[in-house]
Amino acid sequence: xxxxxxxxxxxxxxxxxxxxxxxxxxxxxxxxxxxxxxxxxxxxxxxxxxxxxxxxxxxxxxxxxxxxxxxxxxxxxxxxxxxxxxxxxxxxxxxxxxxxxxxx
Length: 104
Fold this sequence. Notes:
The chain is of the alpha+beta class. It has a single domain (6-95), classed as GIY-YIG endonuclease.
C-alpha cells in the first residue's frame, strides 16, 4: 500500500476498546501498534485490530476527520464500523499484514 494520509480505528475486540488515529503510513502505523513499539493507550489496552479506515488526499483533511470522529459518541463510532465491516474483521490482513495476535 502506497503511503497516503489516513484515519483509522483500532479495536481490542468486537465492541471492545477503540482507538482512533491518523497517519501517513497506515500499514506501518498498524504494525507499530501491534508490536507495542510506541508505549501508550493502544499497548496498554491491547488495541491492535484494524476495523475501519479512510484514506485522504492530504494530511489536513485526515486530521480534520480524525478530530471529528474522536468527538463522536461511542454508538456512532460502532455504527460507522459496522456499516462497512459488520464482522469486525481485521482489515490489515487484506492490506498485507498478518493477523493481529491478542495481547494478554
